[in-house]
Specification:
Layout: E1 7-9, E2 19-29, E3 37-43, E4 45-50, E5 53-58, E6 67-73, E7 81-91, E8 105-110, E9 115-116, E10 122-125, E11 145-147, E12 166-167, E13 169-172, E14 182-184, E15 191-195, E16 199-206, E17 212-216, H1 217-221, E18 231-241, E19 245-261, E20 264-281, E21 284-294, E22 300-306, E23 315-317, E24 330-336, H2 343-348, H3 352-355, H4 363-368, E25 370-371, H5 385-388, E26 392-393, E27 406-408, E28 412-432, E29 437-443, E30 454-455, E31 458-459, E32 461-465, E33 469-473, E34 479-489, E35 495-506, E36 514-517, H6 520-535, H7 553-566, H8 571-582, H9 604-621, H10 624-642, E37 670-671, H11 672-691, H12 695-716, E38 717-718, E39 723-724, E40 727-729, E41 732-733, E42 737-738, H13 739-747, H14 756-763, E43 775-776, H15 781-793, H16 797-813, H17 836-846, E44 848-850, E45 857-860, E46 869-874, E47 881-888, E48 891-897, E49 903-906
Parallel strand pairs: 6-14, 11-32, 42-43, 45-49
Antiparallel strand pairs: 1-13, 2-7, 2-10, 3-6, 3-8, 4-5, 4-7, 8-9, 10-12, 15-35, 16-26, 16-28, 17-22, 18-21, 18-23, 18-24, 19-20, 19-21, 19-22, 24-25, 27-35, 28-33, 28-34, 28-35, 29-32, 29-34, 30-31, 36-46, 37-40, 38-39, 40-41, 44-45, 46-47, 47-48
Helix pairs in contact: 6-7, 6-17, 7-9, 7-17, 8-9, 9-10, 9-11, 10-11, 11-12, 11-13, 13-14, 13-15, 15-16, 15-17
Length: 913
């Protein structure tokens, strides 16, 4: 499309990272037009107001080569006379798992108002947000450290004086780099609803602040967070002590580090952990040297001194400076280690700063070090908000009322429970003295009655520095949590917390689907899965709403199936299919996580699932348009896979991260699970070929699928184990047997039907709580969903239901309100790919599934499995299907209300035991 507007930014230099900017434009209207279509977009994200009223947030995630823009009629928000358009933009400046780095920019136009982005807009760089921060996690963006004293109060409204703001600067006319194309928003804006119900459940006193240094070498060297080589750097500083003493020093690393003090090794190796050590300091200046190892995503360490105030080091200075200074570090590196095989070997390998050391104070190292300015890493507390929130005094509860309003004094904290997992923008209304620090941490669960926002490589906390008086705060970026902890520091008087709510932000679906039966546990499981998927429906299906927020196709593929029986939305899947299609390179290779520049984004297993998803989407919707659009990409993807077909007719040596499950599968050589996905993708391609009238290709793809299926059984079936092995290397079959491989073999229709129960019986115990010895079990609810599907495909419906009850009930008993990523409760507690039982209960127990594309015909085949009754609704493009069945005197009777235009077939069990 052609744009009247220009890409604009503030008059300052283009920001490098984590920058916020305000834009305003006043217009005077003699009359309000009946319609005023506005188009706008930004890099990276914007929030839009008119006359102080919130309008929308955007744009949706995209590849900047096809920049997403939003379009809406703004006439209902306008009035005669003066109107103010206001936009706040956050430019990330670094790629995440949902954003590809572009450049800072804002684009707007509304021809009905003769307004577009140009120098008539006023602009201001924001100083309210502290910019120099490390990311919360490699997959997502930054914490927010917001100083309300620096925010221009009322800037979105009409009465604000922007006379001191400067005109915006034009940086390009569309199309221009990196935005060469545009796509209108294909999905609706997220629905925002303020929700209260928070209860204060704990309180106490915070620990006093101690000096904290955050050494973020990725930020220092300005390198990509997605590096994969092993690199090492050294960091050196000096601290001054008034007397000889032993002081406690806490070290935290997500990878590995080594510590010297005054030339002596104090910590020979700290790997992916934290440790409190006693450090001997002499009177005067002391040398601290750290050796820091960089991993795949992390190159960071945190150093924290813990001592009484009169015992803390008095001053810091970088090496080779003549006078004491603010905290500063000298850095030497980076050094690449090609031969290191583990972290400790890397730490023990001497590099120039160690090899050339000829003095007790490492003076030779000091000469090698490159000093890049004092205070490069200094200050600490803004950069370690989540860490600081971990230090709380237990057993010091304060008498606080359970409900808001609440009060907090200096050095106090409270913990709030929203009762269930929520996703949105926490909104805090308060009265406070100026300069109070409120650290706000988020968690899906509690640890010893408090939130631990610094966990699992996730620093999940924000900071608000208050202005004086009444104010409302919410972060710019979305958060997901059940619990919130608020720590109060530097308060000169009492802080009055009037209300804590959540501006819940979810994809706007309605609860059209429903499942109820005589077992209350199964009803809870069905609804919990629907809730889990709903929280992961944003501008894409995300794998979790807090830690990653990534469109990971392994989770998206399954979430669409759950959505299809719970909500009946198709637009979000259509958008996701097109996004993955845009990731395809010239060779035909696709990404499994997108949009991102993450090196392992090209995941063969997820690429094959994408082909499955096109067929699933078509079968559910009957939409042939998207099939015709994406079919050439399917062809190119399969051409890429064809390069790696072995003489045995199986994929072997396929490059990329072949992810199946977080379990110890044998993934060498010809991998069984990947080839099961390949066979199903070829079958799907054959069916898609029929839709686009490519009959010869349909025949070819189906013939290839038969070849792969035959080779799969020939190469991987191990008769003496009565199961399929994980892989084959040359002539040697693996000795590893897994639930994943065997469930894939059955679920994707590769194993002969007469072997279904045999294979599954070899990898499942009679007790569904247990796993057989010598078998790799499903490590996640996501992979277990395929096992459930395989059990149903084998006709083992009762065992599948028992397995479902046993496994998913564990999470409910532990207090889960959404499904976990892993069975062991590590990682996210809201993982969209874990919601498979919702689909299985509707499809296999209620028994409703389509027999023609778009639900033009469907079948109802109840599976009572000991249940007395079940009923529910299934949303379809033709309308909702209502189904109810009951078991009385050994007979199942079924009632169905189909939508107009749909043919129904009911197959009741002949006898119910």
């Amino acid at each position: 499309m052609n744009w009247f507007g220009n890409w604009i930014w503030t008059d300052s230099e283009a920001p490098s990272r984590n920058a916020y900017a305000y834009f305003r434009r006043d217009i005077n209207l003699a009359h309000v037009p009946q319609k005023a279509i506005a188009r706008l977009t930004a890099d990276s994200r914007y929030t839009f107001w008119i006359n102080g009223q919130f309008i929308c947030r955007g744009p949706s995630r995209c590849d900047p080569r096809w920049q997403s823009y939003d379009e809406m009629d703004i006439a209902p928000f306008l009035r005669e006379g003066r109107n103010t358009l206001a936009v706040l933009i956050h430019h990330y400046g670094e790629s995440t798992f949902s954003y590809i780095l572009g450049r800072a920019g804002f684009l707007f136009e509304c021809s009905a108002l003769n307004v577009w982005s140009d120098p008539t807009w006023k602009s201001l760089d924001s100083t309210a947000w502290f910019r120099d921060l490390s990311r919360m996690r490699v997959q997502i963006g930054y914490p927010e450290v917001f100083d309300a004293r620096r925010d221009p109060v009322g800037w979105t409204g009409q009465d604000f004086d922007d006379s001191k703001w400067l005109p915006a600067v034009v940086i390009g006319k569309p199309p221009c780099e990196p935005w060469f194309g545009f796509e209108s928003r294909e999905i609706p804006f997220l629905r925002e609803t303020e929700t209260g119900g928070a209860r204060v459940i704990a309180s106490g006193e915070t620990e006093s602040l101690h000096p904290v240094e955050v050494l973020d070498l990725q930020r220092f060297f300005q390198t990509d967070h997605f590096m994969t080589s092993w690199q090492v750097a050294y960091a050196c500083t000096c601290v001054r002590s008034d007397e000889p003493q032993d002081i406690r020093l806490e070290l935290i690393t997500a990878q590995a580090l080594k510590l010297w003090v005054n030339g002596e090794v104090v910590v020979p190796g700290l790997i992916n952990s934290r440790k409190m050590v006693e450090v001997p300091l002499r009177s005067g200046w002391n040398w601290l040297v750290l050796k820091l190892l960089q991993g795949q995503h992390h190159w960071k360490a945190i150093v924290r001194f813990v001592a009484a105030a009169d015992k803390l080091p008095r001053s810091w200075q970088p090496p080779e400076t003549g006078t004491p200074a603010q905290p500063g570090w000298a850095i030497s590196g980076p050094y690449v280690l090609d031969s290191a095989h583990d972290q400790q070997t890397a730490l023990d390998t001497p590099l120039p700063p160690e090899m050339d050391n000829s003095g007790s104070e490492m003076k030779a190292w000091q000469r090698l070090a490159e000093t890049r300015g004092q205070g490069q890493f200094g200050g600490g507390s803004e950069r370690a908000v989540a860490l600081l929130m971990e230090f709380t005094k237990h057993g010091a509860g304060l008498p606080l009322h359970e409900n808001f309003p609440a009060e907090l004094g200096d050095g106090q904290y409270l913990v709030v429970d929203f009762g269930r997992e929520v996703a949105g923008y926490p909104r805090l209304q308060l009265h406070a003295p100026a300069g109070t620090i409120l650290d706000i941490g988020y968690g899906e669960r509690l640890f010893d009655s408090v939130v631990r926002p610094n966990r699992h490589e996730l620093a999940y906390a924000d900071r608000l520095v208050t202005r004086s008086g009444a104010q409302t705060w919410e972060p710019f970026e979305k958060r997901a949590f059940r619990y919130v902890q608020i720590d109060c520091r530097h308060a000169s008087n009492t802080v009055h917390l009037d209300q804590l709510s959540v501006n819940v932000s979810t994809y706007p679906v309605e609860e059209r689907g429903r499942f109820e039966c005589s077992d209350p546990l199964l009803n809870r499981i069905w609804q919990t899965g629907a809730d889990t998927v709903r929280l992961n429906m944003e501008d894409a299906y995300t794998n979790c709403p807090d830690r990653d927020r990534a469109m990971e196709w392994g989770a998206a593929n399954l979430q669409f199936l759950v959505n299809s029986v719970a909500f009946g939305d198709a637009a979000l899947m259509r958008r996701g299919l097109r996004l993955i299609g845009q990731s395809q390179d010239e060779d035909g290779r696709l990404c499994g996580i997108y949009p991102t520049t993450f090196p392992d984004r090209q995941m063969p297993s997820f690429s094959l699932l994408w082909i499955h998803s096109i067929w699933d989407y078509y079968w559910s919707t009957g939409d042939t348009e998207i099939v015709r659009e994406l079919y050439p990409k399917v062809q190119n993807a399969l051409k890429w896979f064809a390069r790696y077909v072995s003489p045995n007719k199986l994929l072997a040596g396929t490059p990329g991260w072949v992810f199946i499950d977080w379990a110890h599968l044998d993934q060498r050589g010809e991998q069984a699970a990947l080839n099961a996905l390949y066979a199903r993708a070829l079958e799907a391609a054959g069916s898609l070929s029929e839709i686009v009238n490519a009959r010869p290709l349909a025949i070819r793809y189906r013939a290839l699928a038969r070849e792969v299926k035959a080779a799969f059984h020939r190469q991987f079936w191990k008769a003496e184990r009565e199961a399929y092995v994980d892989c084959r290397v040359g002539d040697e079959p693996s000795t590893v047997i897994s639930q994943q491989t065997n469930s894939f073999a059955v679920f994707f229709g590769i194993a002969p039907s007469q072997l279904h129960r045999t294979a599954l019986g070899s990898v499942c115990c009679a007790d569904p709580v247990l796993d057989p010895e010598g078998v790799v079990a499903c490590a996640s609810p996501h992979s277990s969903s395929y096992l459930l599907g395989a059990l149903h495909a084998a006709g083992l419906h009762t065992f599948a239901l028992d397995y479902l009850r046993a496994r998913w009930k564990r999470m409910l008993d532990a207090g889960a309100t959404t499904w976990w990523k892993l069975w062991n409760a590590e990682g996210s507690w809201c993982h969209g790919g874990s919601a498979g039982p919702t689909y299985n209960l509707t499809t296999h127990i209620l028994g409703v599934h389509p027999t023609a594309a778009g639900w033009r015909s469907f079948e109802v085949r109840p599976q009572p499995c000991g249940l007395e009754w079940a009923q529910g609704n299934v949303p379809t493009p033709l309308g909702d299907i209502a189904v109810e069945w009951r078991v009385e005197e050994g007979r199942c009777t079924t009632a169905v209300r189909p939508p107009a235009g749909a043919k129904c077939r009911v197959i009741e069990p002949q006898q119910v035991v």
